[in-house]
Amino acid sequence: MKLFGDLLKKEAKKMLSEALTGQKHNSNQHDSGQSTGQSSTNRSGDNDETDVKERIRRVIADHYSAYEVKENVSPVEFGGTRGMSSFSFVMYQGGVARLTILVLYDSNGYRRKAVRQSHEISEQAGAKCINIMQYFPSTYDYINRRIQENP
User: CA nearest 74: which of 118, 110, 126?
Assistant: First the structure.
């Protein structure tokens, strides 16, 4: 029964990610709208943190070059504490933080107190905060849309 439950859970995650991104699990759309024919999980091996972070770096370089970007920023810089989640990326404009990005690695990461506190401290500092989930496809276009929606 455990095997059946695991398969069901995997299919449910796949369907949810397709619904959220508006794309099939086996396509990876770029700005040109053409499919590479590869899944986001197979583009550069496993869909690990390096892969997701690399897509975020590419999106920022391609579309948001006017921003200064720092990686692995401590919440202390926003008046928080070390117990909070570090920001995977912070986008600055004119020396002011405009957007913080947390790359989350497990399906309940967004519920963790440290993550919620990091969101709160970011918002208090005047910077929007978004989560990018490593366990979803988090395609190039999806990441770009999330950043566009949260200037």
Answer: 118
pLDDT band at 114 (very low <50, low <70, confident <90, very high): confident
**Distance, CA of 19 to CA of 86 (rounded, Å):** 29
Q: Which long-range contacts (CB under 8 A, 24 or more apart) does 76-81 make?
A: 78/121, 78/122, 78/124, 78/125, 78/127, 79/121, 79/124, 79/125, 80/117, 80/118, 80/121, 81/117
Residues 6+ apart with CB under 8 A from 55: 40, 138, 139, 140, 143
Q: Is 0.70 surpassed by the pTM of this model?
A: no
When pLDDT is averaged across residues 33-48 and rounded to a whole number, the result is: 37
Please state the φ and ψ torsions of residue 117, each to the nearest 5 degrees. Answer: -65, -40
